[in-house]
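User: Before I run my own analysis I want an independent prediction to cross-check against. Here's the chain; please return only the structure tokens and, at the end, one sentence I can use as a sanity check.
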Amino acid sequence: MDNFVKQKIELAAAFRWTARLNMHESVVNHFSVCAKNDSSKFLVNPGGMHFSLLKASDLICIDTNDIKKSTKHLHEDKKPLETALDLHSSIHRKINNAKCILHVHSKYATIVSTLKKGKNSKWPGCIPPIDQNTMRFYKRVAEYNSYGGIAKGAEAKRITKKIGDKNILLLANHGVVVIGSTIAKAFYDLYYFEKACETYVKALTTGYDLKILPHKVAEKTARQMENYKPSNIADLYFKSLLKILDKEDSDYKE
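Assistant: Structure tokens:
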């Protein structure tokens, strides 16, 4: 299969599974992947289309060198959102390993993004190490704590600068951005980050003090997760999702 076609099919699958997991919001979130490993061109979803309906053929190829030309032939309700164009073009250009970018306002990550951080908070970081999933992300999440409106123009550029060497960026009062060298890896991190945030939020609702594990244990566990065998577990997980879609929802490939 041609790599470009493969990317479109896999990205369409990521949209479908995000909808199944209810991690999307209305028709305003957006995913992208570099087209043919060229960071100046990327595939992105049209604005106004629900993730559960999206097909490979719906994806739009954007040339960051001439965004207007890439979209001028499209009807207004089929064009990518301005925020998608600004944010994804900025990240693809500046972050080397951002071959795939997933941005959602998923329920639990967004709740965590609203929690106050700092010296006077119960936990100064993103999510505390209270179980294996939260420890997976111990000190491995960047945070953008200066919400300045929707991710357009200068705001998109400021967000990009905050990613640094991390694969996950929590956007204060907004949501999350996950990047990866492949669609499978980015989706795997998105899935587990939302699970980790869910555990944290639900633990808080008990009203009891959290049993936060020490740095040594949390860092050890995070490293073990990074070196987990088989090393291609993200690919294996994503391939399983593709097989399920092939049986239950196969028009995503069209």
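Sanity check: The chain has one domain: 3-253.
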